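Input record (one chain):
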Amino acid sequence: MKIHEFQAKAILDTYGVPIPKGEVVTTPVEAGRAVERLGGTAVLKAQIHAGGRGKAGGVVLVSSPQEAEAAAERLIGSCLVTHQTGHEGRVVKRILAEERVTVSRELYAGIVLDRRAAQPMIMASGTGGVEIEELAANYPERIIRVVVDPAAQLQSFHIRRLLSGLALPQPVQSAATGVFSALYRLFQEKDCSLVEINPLVITAEGRLLALDAKLNIDDNGLFRHPDLEALRDPDEELPLEVEAARFRLNYIKLNGTVGCMVNGAGLAMATMDLVKLVGGEPANFLDVGGGASAEQIEHAFRILISDRSVRVVLINIFGGILRCDRLAEGVIQAVRSLQVTLPIVVRMEGTNVEQGKRMLAESGLNFMTADGMQEAAEKAVEASQQAVQGSTCDVQSS
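The corresponding structure, as predicted from the sequence alone:
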């Protein structure tokens, strides 16, 4: 789960990480009043769940309350398109008005989960700001990486390694030590998958400030943090993904035409890989879980076909906890109830597989079955390509 910058900064503040003074506003009048309280000059920052806001015009420097009102008038309600939002962009509904600071130096600090090491990894760089992604891609040696064993916790030698690579002035080192310690505690205690400050700046007065902040929380840990769950902003999430979460379905929308319904994350990833291997593009990741009911399968179908880019549905199920006959029952019920007209390719193996296949065959509905994963992927991609060609011909003839 992602949260807004102003929410992330409020959490950082509770951990003792220094942040600029600021206020969240939702109207131009509020923006003007906030800037007046901040001393007449400020920076206005559009609050959306995406990076690249500065380059897209979502960060504006203002020198008076009147300028703030005019800038807020332009920003609030506008659609901000960045390299992370896609062409559809995000509608700006709130702005963070913050004090302007004179920056002497920009740094980067962040923590992610190193999945290869299965441990948290702290990253830092003496160069932060809007070009950090290019820096990481072109000059990876400039990113300091320290992996921390959770059993041993963060130690002083970890922080010394980070500080030695940043070459900070002596007066700032103590503050930086506190920031890294706080970030690690936050990462652990709030079940985060990402904690990032970019940039972490040294001001002209020698203060260390988190000028921007990003926090992602692991969805699987949210049951421990109802206070964080309350920070969720559904307007910043894709409607289909929000709908899927309501029914405990793991769904992520992608850009292809083959809608995938699979049980188990590993099998889902393998299915998507096979679709790409045989020349197609998956339209989604959808894991219905091991014990999906007929009702959940119907909800999954409804979400799949709500994506207008989907031209074929590929069902790939290993029947263990989810028996094949229960899957067949749910699929048949969903197709009839939702009046699905898309081609449907089904591959299933496991408990009661013959009974499940018989139910599909006797349903009177137009299912295509496959005995293996590659055969299923090939049939799905072929059906998808035929559907795309057919729609192109229809457009040309009209």
